[in-house]
Structure formats: C-alpha cells, structure tokens
Amino acid sequence: MQEGKPLNSRQVNRELLVSILNSPKWFFGALAVLGFIVLVAMSTAGFMINQGFGVTGLNRPVMWGFFITNFVFWIGISHAGVMLSAILRLSKAEWRRPATRAAEILTVFSLMTAMTMPLIHTGRPWRTVYWIYTLPFVPYDYARGIWPNIRTPLVWDPSAVYTYLTSSILFVLIALIPDFAVLRDRTTGISHRIYGMLAMGWQGNARQWKLQIIAGVLLSALILPVFVSVHSIVSWDFGMAVSVKSWHSTIFAPYFVVGAVHSGVSAVALVLIILRYIYGWQNYIRHEHIDALARLLIVVATGWFYFFVMEVIFGFYGREADEIAVRDLQFTVSPWNIWMMIFVGLTYFAPVAIWLSRSARRNLWIMSLACIIVNIGMWLERFLIIVPGLARKQLLTFDWYTYRPSSVEWIIIIGTFALVSMLMLTIARVAPLIPLYDIKEAEILRTEIKIGRVTVPATFRED
Amino acid sequence: MWVFPDVTVMSREVTEKTKSSPKPFTIALVAAGILFILGIVGFIARAVGDGFGEIGPWGYYIAVFSMVFMVTGAAPLVSVAFRFTKSHWRRPLSRVSELFAIVGILNLLMFIPLMFLLPSIGNPEAAVGGELAVRRTIWLEGPIGAPHAWDLVGVIGVVVTSMFILWLSALPDMAECRHTATGFRRWLYSKLSGNWYGTKRQWNAQKAGLALLGAFYFMTLIFVQFLISSDYAQSLIPGWKDSIFPVIYTITSLQMGFGSILVTLFIIRRWGGYEGYIGKSTFWSGSKVLLGITLLWVYHLFAFFITFWYGRLEIEQNVLKYLVTDTYAIVFLFNLAFSFALPFAVLIWNPVRRSAWGPALAGALVIIGGIMFNIRIFVGAANAAPGSNLYHGIMEHVPAPVYPDIWDVLMVIGGIGAGVFVFLLATRLLPILAIWEVKEGALYQKWGKLLRGEYLILGKPE
Amino acid sequence: MAKEPILGLFETADNAADAGDALKAAGVPQADYDFLTDTPYPEGAFGERHESHRLYIFPFVGALIGLTVGIMLTSMTQLAYPLVQGGKPILSMPPMAVVTYESTMLTAIVFTIIGIIFESRLPSFKQGLYDTRITEGYIGVLVNVDEGQLTQTQTLLTQAGAIDVVRK
C-alpha cells in the first residue's frame, strides 16, 4: 500500500503549498466564472423571495421539491469528512492521509451550502432569526414567551447541523495549526502575521505533537456519533411524518446515513482526482488511494443497497392502499419508473460493476465518471423519496399532483454546486488541502520487512 | 500488547493442546452435556404436553433457537470481515470464530420443529369481521413454499456455507497434522485435507475461495436473518410494520457473535495456555469493534422507538406498549442494560479496553443482553395474537407477559448448553488457533528500532 | 541564575537523537530540552521525556455541562409554554433525548478543543527561540541552560552534528 517514492520535507512543502504560494494562472478566471454563477443563483433566489413561491413548481401537496432534495443531498455530501477522517484515523488506515483534509473541508462547505436551502425555502428568510437556537436562546415571541417546540424534527435539525458544523470547523482548525505554522514560516508581511496568529505560536515540540495526535483520535471518536445523528435527524424530517405514507419508515435513519456516506465518499474521491490533476499532486494522491476508496465504496454501496431493499420491501409489507399508491407511482408510472431505474442503476449496479475491476479502479477517468454517476443517482434518490410521497399524499386522488421544477429551482440548484466549488477553490488558496505533517509522518514511519527474496512495505506502529 | 509466537514449535504445541483433555475442559464438557440433556427433556415434555399445533407455548424455544442461530451465524462473519480488511489482529480469533459453524448443525436440528409451528400465511378461516385473508408478511400473497421451505433453504444455506468456510480455512492445518494425528482425527484430516501440499497455486486458490465464500456467506446470512426475524417475530405481531427490525436483529447477532468470540479467546488465553499466541492487541482492537456495534445497536433501537413513538398511531403505540414500555418492560430494561448501558460503561475506558478481561466482560454482558432481546421478541411474537387474532390488521389489546415454566427454563439452558457442548467437541476436532494464519502473521510482524525507541513493525502484504 | 535558550539545528533525526544522548550524558535534566520537528515522531523516538496530560478531563466536563444545559433547556422551555402538540406529552423524553444528546456532544467537543489548545500550552504569544528551517525538515533541539553553560552546550550540539546553533 505504499507505492509512492520517498519524499523529503522541502519537496512536500514546495509541492503541497503550490496552491497557496504559487497560484496557477487559471485560478482567478475559474473563481470569476464560479462567482458569476453563484451571483446569478443568488439573484434568482432574491427574485423568488420577491415574487413568491409561485415562480417555482411547488404546489399543494408537493410543498417540498428541489430545494429540500438539495438540502438533504448536501448534508449527505458533508458526511464524507467524518467517514474518511474519523473512521480511517481510528482504524489507522495509512491510505487516509491525503484524503482527510479535503474531506473535512468539503464537509464544512457542503454543510454551509445545505443550510442555505431551508433558509430560502422559508420564503421569508428574515423570520428564521426566531429559529436560531444557539445561545442566547431566543423565544419566538418575547411578550408571550413562546419558545421553539422541541417536539419536532424541524427543531432537532438545526441543533444537529449546528453541532456538526461547529465541530467540523473546530476539528479542521485544530488540525491546521501545524500547517499554519509552515505557512507562517514561508510567508512575509500581512500573510505572515495572519498565519502566525492562526498558528498560535506553534513550535512543533513533542508535547504539542502528542496532543495533536491525541486530538485527532479523540475528536474523531467524539465527532463520529454526531455524524451519525445529523443525517438521522434530517431523515426524521420525513420519517416522523405519518401523513406521507412512504416516509413513515423506521429504517430511514440508517438508510440516509449510509446513503450520505456513499455520496460523500464518492464526492471526495472526485475532489481528490480533480486536485491531483489541477495541482499536479501525483506523488500524494496516488492510484492506490483511489483504489482503496473504491473498495470502501463497494462495501458502503452494498450496505446502502441492503437498506434500500429493506425500505422498499417494507413499503409493500403493510399492503395499505395509500402506500401502494406511492409505490405504484414510483415503480409503474412513467417517467417516475424510468427515473427509478436510472437511480438504482447509477447508484449501485453501474458503479459497483466498475469498482469490481482493479484496472477500472486505477483508471482515474473511469473513477471520476463512477463518482459523478453515484452523486447523480443519490440526488435522484432523495428526489424520488420526497416528491412521489407528497404527490400521492392523500387517498383523495383529486389532490394528487405532478411536480415540475421551474427554471428558478434549476438555477438555484446549479448555484449551490458552483458555491461549493468556489469555496473549495478559495480555501485551496489559503490552506493546504493535503495535511503536510500527515504526509511527512508517513515517510518517517515507512519501512520494509524482508521475507525470503521479497521486500514487503511496512510501517512502524506505536500500538 | 503484541506477541511474537515461535513458529517452529507452534504446530506441535497447538496440536498437543488440541489432543489433550485437561480436567477443567472435561468438567465443562460434562456440565454442558448435562444441560443439553435437560434441554432435550424440556423439549420432549413441551411436545408431549402442548404438541406443535399452537406457536404460543413454544416462544422460549424459538427464542433459544434464535440465540444459537444469531451466535453461530454471526461468529464466522467476524473472521470473514476482518480477513477482508486485512487486519493482522484477527489472526488469533479466526479459527475460534469459524468453529461456530459446527454449532450450526444444531441450528438445523432446532429449526425442524419451527417449520411446524409457524402459522400459515393464508387465513384458514374465512376473512370475517375485518380479518385479513392473508396476514402481513414479507411474502405478500405467499408464493409457493413460503415461508417454511424458503426459511429452511436459507438456514441450510447459512450452515453449509459456514461449514465450507471452516473447511477451506482449516485445510492447511489439517494437512499439516494428518501424519502426526492418530485415531479419528487422522482419518478425518486425511479425508478432508485431500491433496493439499501448500503449493503457491493452492494458497492462491484458498485465498480467492475464502474471499468469494466470505462475500457469499455475508449476503446469505444477512438475507436469512431478514427471513427469520420477519417470519418468526415481526409477522406474528399484527400491526408491527418495522423496516429496521431485520437490521436490529442482525446487529444484535453481530454483537452476540463477537461477544462469544471475545469470551472464548479470554478463556483459552487465560486457562488454555494460549497466552503466547493471543496478544492483548486482539482484545484492544476487538473492543473498539464491540463498542462500535454496541453504539450501533442503541442507535437503531432509538430510531425504531422514536419513529413509532412520534406518530401516536394506535397500531404503533400498541406495539411499543407490548415490546418496550408495558408488557415486556422489565425484559426490555434488562436488554437495554446488558446490550448497551453496561458494555458501554465497561468499554469506554482505555485501560479496560487494553486488557484482556475488559472486552471479555463486555462480551459476556452483550450475550446476556442478546438473550433478553430474544426472549422479549420471540416470546412476545409467539404470544401476541393467539388463534384468529393473528389475522387482524392491528393488535387490539396488548397481551400480558408470558412467564417461563420449568420446561421453558430447561429448554433455554439446554439450548445454550447444547451450543457450548458442540463447540467444545469441535475444539477437539480442529485446532482452536488457525496455525497457518498465525504463522503468516508472524512473517509480517516484528519488533524494530526507530532512533531511540522500539516499536512494532507491521508489514502490508498486497 | 536565569536559564537561557539555545537551539541546535540538525539535518537528520539520527544526529538529533545523538544530541539528546549527549545532553543526557552531560547531566542536562530532560525537562530542560525539547525536540522541535515539522512532523510527529513516534513517542520516545528521540529518547525524550514522557509528556503527561489531563486532556481526558475536558470532554467529560464538557459533556456534563452540555447534558445539564440540554436537559434544562428542553424541559424548562416545554414547561414554560405547555402546548400539547400531536398528542405528545408536555415533557417528551425522546425529543428531549435528541436535543440533549446534541448539546452534550457539542459542549464535549468544544471543551476538548479548549483542552487541546490549553494542554499544548497554546496560544504562545511569545514564541521563544525558533528557526523557520524546522518546517523545512530540520530538527531543532531547544535547550534551556544557565547562561554560563551556553558555550559548553553549543560545543556539545555542534559535536553531535548540528549544522547551525542559534542563540537568542
């Protein structure tokens, strides 16, 4: 698992800090394009808030459509950070090293982007100030002391998302301290002062490194339960509802969490391939890392498929007319059944078939394609859970509706993808997306064992 | 933490221990045998007294079948899973986990009465007064053979696959011992090891075979656990529509299986003389896995509970009252304590996880928790809707708890004793340590110096 | 007498470890010298002193505070405006458990972060003797000795293989 050539500190610094210290020429152009798309999306959102929700395709009973689908999608993408960073750190997988920082930062930005969705979905976003849950706690109505009702998943949601967001940001910042120290030593002027402040006087003595290692493990262990709870609570936005038949399923929590891991890890794999290409990080993001991610994804995808099958089987189990109506829409009515087939194909069968082949796993073009189709499939999955359920919400067929998203919704969705890309590109200019010390540590711990005529790569382990 | 066994004496030492029958072992075997016999007595008494017409009196029997099925099903999965992740710490526990496959034969025997006990899917009487013509099951309208034949095929599939995995994994060890073994063992090893000589081709084939069989076993086991948990529990409680229950069942089985392995490892390390082969690193890593499974268990339980609790639907509230808050509340509390609270309290401490006794204690606790789980679910399911109530859409009245009588107690302890008895016999047949696997591990692990410190060096074969 | 810092820079980890041996042999207490690196070495690799810490107290304290705040927040707000919603009791345990769990984890994590920063003796506004070449891969051996022993220590570090010795 150690196919790379040996690297010294100077080379690691030079190559991994290229995105910060030697910005490529295309950087500002790319930022401008993405920024423009984000501006267009923001203007469209402003237009929607001004004109009202009539400009979207939302109508009774399908009151949740593209925006909520997108919200759940981005929350899902945010799960990659903890999956790769925490679980692989706890299991001491060596191949996690180049992936953790990018995954953690993707987590933070996708969470922030996800939060914009319910914000604009309120139609009157200024009223969400009543919902703000962090200290000091604010009642809806001061005069009558009406407090937010905690007996609803819509209030559990912000508590979970804010907890996860705060934890992820703090986790990233703590892990960045040694890298800020490197940047402090490599820059001058105002950058030097800012990095100096962020590095907090880091020297790199044994005590600081010991605590940095313990921090990684301890915070991973603490964030892991939070990560599981976040998407579970988001799933309970649907799972608690008894009025929408296909939603009220006990399996929603783990189903959504595994789905989130599936889409998130695929997204991180794609981000790593892109970073390798745009910054020339072939020494750091090697084929073995993408191979390992793909093998992890086979397991995650299979787990997801199991939960999906359980959800569908038990949808039919009750043989209740209103639930059968939803399933009928999903599986027999065009175009929903076509979307359903595309979704299952893109999310499980096609990518897993690709990942079962070693040569395909090590081909970065094929892997990029596989990761993209997984995310298209997972976006469709959320859409096919949310909309058909609402479209057949009651047994009263006159109330059934066919949802068609408007261009306003499309623009805003595309805007969120541009927003995350723009934020990732911006942060690559400010902080290294591959942890420097992690890579250097791998070099120190790298060794070999001779067995007969063969030399097997090995690592030193403290426990 | 880490041990570096002397591979030159390993084969001889382990085979000698396999052949020997020290006094404590004999006592344990006899005690387990007595419990086994008592279990048979209880079974016969129940059969004579109540027959196989009604499922109600057999709740405890189904619970003990499920216990044995859970442990024997999930245990081999542990070696499959950690072989897949190439974790070195799994090597001492591989054979222990695979030997549970032999106890799977007990599963088959115990399952036979269950086929007669399961009520038919179709309502034998006409669907009058709002009754369902076909009760709610995963088989929907009930295709041919469902559910009995398919459940039987599933259980056979699980047992046979796990036995194949055991055979394939033990092949090199049997080949090594076939010339030095005597008596029955010699005959058995000669027959089962075939033409194994340890050529490169044979090793590669074994590796590929274990990987493929492992993947197949994993899928089969999860599927069969879904069948058993749905047919013998969920579908017997009217109104219990719960997509997460098969998952909770699987997780409980993983918990019990892993707990059993840790307890067994502790016993053989402490009293079996295997201290030189089983380092604390196995317990250290295993404890993290058990902690993770324990947390997963309570998470899934909470997901089930809060979804049912929230909607205030009578159909779901009655299920909660029956299984959680009213009828089997005491059993539920014990289940929660032994499957989550106590193991969590034990495993959260680093020094405890670094010891051998800590994870083993947690393993013992989760086994008790699993027993409580099975009693709550299967006794509850068997007695939820007697007679034609089973064909109602909802459990109208929450039944009272069913306490065990003497035959139930004998069947439960007998079932557990039978499992232990068969496992102990299995340890006389095959070495309890996978000799080839531990020797392979010794090639990739050594103690080395880095600057002024000494650390473990772990090779990463591909 | 006041102790003064002196920093020796070494190109290889072996030379830095040799310097550590030499300092130990010269009777310099282990508490008076540190190894500065740009990457974590396994504990004890340089023969350095064992660093003890009490980091684990922080998440426990944080969790207790979060648990208390969560229970108080959820129960007191429900009792302050008791509105039966969806047939659920006023003090509903499962939703309380969800919000209390989140507040427990959040406070545990925040306190852990505070603990990490505190136990690392950060922020260190006066950084002390340091050289930017450390983040280029050089290993610094930072020694605090009496003023009168600085020259002796400099000689010791140079003999151990230091490519440069920096004084304040």
From TrEMBL, chain A:
Provide the protein's localization.
Cell membrane
Enumerate the UniProt keywords alphabetically.
Cell membrane, Membrane, Transmembrane, Transmembrane helix
Annotated InterPro entries: NrfD-like (IPR005614)
Predominant localisation class = membrane
The regions listed as transmembrane in this protein's record are 26-49, 61-90, 102-121, 161-183, 213-234, 254-275, 296-318, 338-357, 364-390, 410-431
Give membrane topology per the record.
Answer: Multi-pass membrane protein
- The reply on keyword Membrane is yes
Q: Which GO terms describe its cellular component?
A: plasma membrane
**Family, per entry:** Belongs to the NrfD family.
- What is the protein name stated in its UniProt record? Molybdopterin oxidoreductase
Automatic annotation (TrEMBL), chain C:
Q: Which InterPro entries match?
A: ActD (IPR021776)
The portions of this protein that span the membrane are 55-76, 96-118
Q: Does the keyword Glycoprotein apply?
A: no
Keywords attached to this entry: Membrane, Transmembrane, Transmembrane helix
This protein's name: DUF3341 domain-containing protein
